[in-house]
Amino acid sequence: MKKIDYRDKGSILNPLKNLQFFARKPITEKLEPRPASASYRGFHINDMDLCIGCSSCQKICDNAAITMVEVPSIKEDAAKGIRNLRPAIDYGRCCWCALCVDICPTSAIEMTREYVHTCDGDDTDSYFVFPSENGIHDLKFAKGWTKTEDSDLLDRIRRPMGEMKPEARINNFDEVVDGFTMEMAVEEASRCVDCGLCEDACPAHMHAPNYIRSIYEGNLEQAVEWMYETNPFSHVCGRVCTHICEDACSLGRVDENGVKNSQPIAIRWLKRFAMDNVSKATIKHIAQKGKTHIKSGKSVAVIGAGPAGLTAAFDLAKKGHRVTVYEALPKAGGMTRYGIPNYRLPEDRLDQDIEVITSVGVKINYNVRVGTDISMQQIHQENDAVILAIGLHNGRSTRISGSDNKAVVKAVDLLRMIPQGDKFIAPKSAVVIGGGNVAMDIARSMARLQMKQHNKVNVVVSALEALGNSFLADDEEVSESLEEGITILDSRGPKQCVISKGRLTGLETVNVLSIFDNKGRFSPKYDNSDLQYHPAEMVIEAIGQSADITLLGKDLIEELDWDRGRIKINDNGSTSVEWLWSAGDMVKGPDVINAVADGHRVANDIDSYLTR
Amino acid sequence: MRPENYQAVPLGDSNEYEIFIGPNHPGIEGNYALKLILDGDTVVKGTTDAGYLHRGFEKLMEGRLWIQNLAIVPRICVPDPAPMEVSYSLAVEEIMGIDAPIRAQWIRVLQLELSRIAAHLFTFGGHAATTGMYTPMYWGVADRDLVLDLFEDFTGGRVYSIYNIPGGVRRELPEGFLEKLSHLLDYLESRQNDYDNLLFTNQIFVQRAKGVGVLSKEDALEYGVTGPNLRACGLAFDVRRDDPYLIYDQLEFDIPTQQKGDAWSRILVRRDELFQSIHILRQVIAKLPSIKGPIRTAIPNPLSWNVPAGEAYARVESSKGELAYYVVSDGGDKPYRVHVRGPSSMHAVQTLEFLAKGARIEDVAQIMFSLDACPPEVDR
Questions:
Q1: A6 vs B205: CB contact, 8 Å cut-off?
Q2: Phi/psi of residue B102, nearest 5 degrees
């Protein structure tokens, strides 16, 4: 660099040297759009199919330039987490910071390299733009600023949930997952963008964004308050819910261009954390909120103390009705107690949920089997309304040859025996037929008993479906089963139970060619040449359940309308008989959260029926 | 047209008279004004009338999420926005207890020095124009535009980069960017002769600038003057060297100074600084490819991002002087308080008023431009 000293006087001739510029070509550029740079923040485009209407762009917008507009032509799908809201942008407010692009969970909103927009006269509305895939002027400009892994603003990865090592858990029924610590829970909760897609997807519409926020703020009591607005089975759902909410979570989306790995918020585990860390007394106090002290003078009977029946009972008791629950078994909880093993749902957690429910004034009569100990007629006469919520406690049979042997048993019957404390000698080898969560529950329970009694696991699961492709059980159930030493044979259909001199020796299976026919009906096709023999002392059938409706009595069965073997109900859960409602697994489901939702539905309908 | 709240200053029986320059005046460097009381051609008293650009940035920031403020801060100094982003990010990072990755720090230096070059080119033109020379202004603005092209390339925006984020920078440099930058630096160096001929060795300009608006070192310190204006008084103070941030301690550069403290000294310092910036950028070009690694330290989901309670004062050397953000967090999702220590308020208010006293009317605009204040940064 040439130095210029302070004392330099310069020369009057120096500027004249620049006269040479007259001889140069002017560099004035023509007034036409030049191509903007490859990451330019021009106008927005929005891929309508990728956009899920989560409103994150609106929330982060610095200038309130984004308005979410309802587009009726877009189909909403709560279970998949898709809303029909799409962003519209006011370019009078936009500052082109592209934070909306960087926060978009699905990389739907992006910016193009287009940068010129003018309007004629009074047409200022043209600055309010509803971006589509083709850009502000439909000119299909190339993309400019798009999301990269660096610019992505969301916290995509779950805080890992600790769990017991397979060797530590295999000989007992202790709970497998550890649960969050406060710090982990707050971090996990901080990932939420508060879109509410989870709330839409949840059958009971639990206020997940609110309780996640409360956990984030460290206010666990408030979180539990939010939960009890919609779900008296929050301990249960915090552990074994099918978490449809997490499937709808906007953070669970991945896309080809930007985001490779994204995990939904662990909503279920957050719920578990909040419930576990608020005292029972406080929860009881919270559950009392909204309870009226005016007695309606009406009485309702609930048959079956499972999640559906007890949720309805909880709601109705809080509304001032007298509620009596009839339960055939010695304890309440239905399938959550007699179907779900303890290592997934410890009994004391379930007991606490039930204790809270009874604390609002629900009376449960245990060991009363309707139809045997008390007739349906008597219940009808003593009550203004009756809810039938008996669940699905009859195991279905494969009806293959040899399945009538006494060593061929139903999964539900076995699962019911284990928590009842029945002395049960586990077979040294067992084959489970079925590929759903119940099959995994019985296989894993059996493995634990085998380990305890024989110090060796020998359980084979034979499922029709192929692993990794429409397999029915949850992925984590499958992986944890494999860790525990269970063999899963997928795409295998049961051929026959081999009986020798009246004793079961094993199961023969064949390869599955297809499960459904071309009309989508269940009609499995097998390749009989591929035959395998699995020696076993016991074969367990876990292929589905049905309701035991004998309690209704012949007259009522005839009076009711039926829909393919299930009682026909309307949208509110009421049957064709005026005083009878039905809820839970026997009409919908099967899962806990659907049962809870069902319970609320019938309770609301009964309340308006009783107070009409 | 007079502003509504205008009140004539009663002058009594003297020969003095009052004139008002600005806020929209070709001789003023932005949206602020000067009230001058003159006796003949000599200024008796000058009063800075700021506030025309007041948008309440500091207050606005208290109502916005930590991340949303990134879109506001560059607006506090339009010609030199990069130091705003970096300083805000540094302050938030300090409270959070995180550091930007090394590569991001190098990229930030690249952005800061490019921004300094753009700002100085702008100032050359403005300063020259106050002496009646308009060609340097066209040149300065045209050459600055080439810098803006590069900003567009790697930050996505020409003027408001909005490229920094607490924890690093938002995007990796595009492919071939460093070559482009290298070409630009070659070009700027090749322009040195032209600028020198036209402006810095132009006898008319030198004579106009010399001895105008003289500020002594003591007065400069008294008035809180920083940056090139201070260095023109003979004090080699530069935050980059005296309180190094980012990776400035790994770079080699001189701190240009002058002794006389007049308008000529100030523009000479800026001229030399521009070439020091080129020198720094050459080092960045040489070093950056060998620095691999991430460009961002993760921050929480910005929609529920609570910065822990605490406070931080992060200063950087902007083209105007020492720029700092004083950020206070009460542990919430928005700042409790953000204060911008902009160099321009010292330069445009107290220093300008001090220097205007006794100056001739034709030099007032030059004194003002030679101080290189940035009006929105005065108003905040």
A1: no
A2: -55, -45
Interface test with B, best of A148, A151, A187 (most B CBs within 10 A): A151
The topology under which CATH files domain A293-393+555-610 is FAD/NAD(P)-binding domain (3.50.50)
Interface probe, candidates B55, B88, B163, B170, chain A, greatest A C-beta count within 10 A: B170
Is the Cβ pair B157, A15 closer than 8 Å? Answer: no
Rounded to the nearest 10 degrees, how much is the dihedral formed by the CA atoms of A328, A332, A334, A336?
A: -160
pLDDT of residue A589: 67
Q: Is the pTM of this model over 0.90?
A: no
Q: Which amino acid is at A384?
A: D
Flag whether pLDDT at B2 surpasses 80: no
- B277 contact residues in A (CB cutoff 8 A): none
pLDDT of residue B303: 93
Residue A344 has pLDDT above 80, yes or no: yes
Q: At the topology level of CATH, where does A166-287 sit?
A: Fumarate Reductase Iron-sulfur Protein; Chain B, domain 2 (1.10.1060)
Looking at this predicted complex, what is its ipTM? 0.90
The dotted CATH code for B57-364+374-379 is 1.10.645.10
Distance CA B105, CA B128 (A): 35
Instruction: Say how many CB pairs under 8 Å bridge A and B.
Output: 143
More confident residue, A469 or B262: B262
Reported as type and span, the H/E element at residue A326 is: strand A322-326
pLDDT at A30 over 80: no
Give ranges for CATH 1.10.1060.10 in chain A.
Answer: 166-287
CB B67 within 8 A of CB B135: no
Residue of chain B whose Cα is closest to the Cα of A62: B68
What are the tens digits of pLDDT across the range A371-391? 889 999 899 999 999 999 999
CB contact under 8 A, A59 and B303: yes
Supply the mean pLDDT for chain A.
Answer: 90
Provide DSSP, B99-112.
---HHHHHHHHHHH
pLDDT of B8 reads 72
How far, in Å, CA of B205 to CA of A504, rounded? 110
Chain B residue closest to A14 (CA)? B197
Between chains, do B64 and A56 touch, taking CB under 8 Å as contact?
A: no
Identify which of A1, A17, A60 has the shortest CB distance to residue B197: A17
A530-A532-A538-A544 Cα dihedral, nearest 10 degrees: -20
Q: In terms of Cα–Cα distance, which of A589, A607, A550 is closest to A306? A: A589
CATH of A44-129, one of 3.30.70.260, 3.30.70.3270, 3.20.20.140, 3.30.200.100: 3.30.70.3270
Does A40 lie at the interface with B, CB-CB under 8 angstroms?
yes
Nearest Cα to Cα of residue A246 among A203, A197, A292, A204: A197
**pLDDT tier, A420 (very low <50, low <70, confident <90, very high otherwise):** low
Q: Report A:182-221 residues touching B (Cβ under 8 A).
A: 187, 189-194, 213, 216
Query: Is the preceding omega at residue B23 within 30 degrees of 0, hence cis?
Result: yes
**Could you tell me the sign of the dihedral formed by the alpha carbons of A275, A276, A278, A282, in that order?**
positive
According to CATH, where is 3.30.70.3270 located in chain A? Answer: 44-129
In chain A, which segments carry CATH 3.50.50.60? 293-393+555-610, 394-545
At residue B11, the pLDDT reads 61
User: Domain A394-545: what homologous superfamily?
Assistant: FAD/NAD(P)-binding domain (3.50.50.60)
